[in-house]
Amino acid sequence: MTALDRIRDQVTTNTVVLYMKGTPQFPQCGFSSKAAQVLQACGLQEFLAVNVLADPEIFENLKHYANWPTFPQLYIKGELIGGSDIMIEMYQKGEMQTLLEESKAA
Questions:
Q1: CATH number of the domain that 33 lies in?
Q2: Which residue range is the domain that position 26 belongs to?
Q3: Beta-strand pair 48-51/16-20
Q4: 67 secondary structure, DSSP code
Q5: What is the DSSP string of 15-40?
Q6: Does the CA dihedral 71-75-79-82 come out positive or negative?
Q7: How far apart are CA 63 and CA 70, in angstroms?
Q8: Which residues, in sequence order, are CB contacts of 37 under 8 Å at separation 6+?
Q9: Among 13, 11, 104, 106, which Cα is nearest to 42's?
């Protein structure tokens, strides 16, 4: 299975996937930390967090998967939502909470 196949499998078999530097418990950059905090502030307890620093193939290929060059990257139901700035903006508007609630109901 290629790295792109693994990414496709991860984002299509998990409702919420956060590709980040580090882990939610031990983020390795401020942007990844903020992204994980947004999900936790929305009450999301379980989501797939992929540490791109621990998987060089994912790190190199993820930017090509959705043509998004930076980390973190949030996917909900297979769709790229964006990075931490977009996540924070959506959270402040209440959109992230709604999107996550809708993803649970579907």
A1: 3.40.30.10
A2: 3-105
A3: parallel
A4: T
A5: SEEEEESB-SSSBSSHHHHHHHHHHH
A6: negative
A7: 7
A8: none
A9: 104
3-class SS of residue 44: coil
Question: Tens of pLDDT along 41-98?
Answer: 999 988 999 999 999 999 999 999 989 999 999 999 999 999 999 999 999 999 999 9
The Cα–Cα gap between 75 and 15 comes to: 8
CB-based burial label for 93 (10 Å; 0-12, 13-18, 19+): exposed
What is the phi-psi region of residue 96: left when phi exceeds 0, alpha when psi lies from -120 to 50, beta otherwise? alpha
Residue 64's contacts (CB-CB under 8 Å, 6 or more residues apart) are: 4
d(CA 34, CA 64): 23
Report how many domains make up the chain: 1
pTM over 0.85: yes
> 18 near 74, Cβ under 8 Å?
yes
Residues 6+ apart with CB under 8 A from 82: 68, 73, 74
